[in-house]
Write the structure tokens for this entry.
Amino acid sequence: MAICYSSELDKVFHALGDGSRRLILATLAKNSRCTASELVDLFDVAQPTISKHLKVLEAARLVHRTVEGRRHYFSLNAAGLGQVDDWLARHRSLWNNSLDRLECYLFSEAGSEHSGDD
């Protein structure tokens, strides 16, 4: 099975690689939607820093922005994690198969050592 790479997937992993962005996603999952100002209150940072994090999350399609008048609301786009789930499933399968083969090999070697002791 070939390992596939995609620039969209790279964006998602980049976005998930930062603890502040993961906290933003967890907050959006809990609260349904928040303004950027509400998210700033979670951190001890300036508004532009949160705006940069939100832009990374938007580029990765993990959050969705809705503009109502002058307010920008952000909500979680859980479908954006679908690519990660697919990638993990492929790699989980690859590793499980490899580990299963290793286990069979180790048990066959252990069995052959015991049969030679008689």
Notes: The CA atoms of residues 28 and 109 lie 51 Å apart. The beta strands are 33-35, 63-68, 71-76.
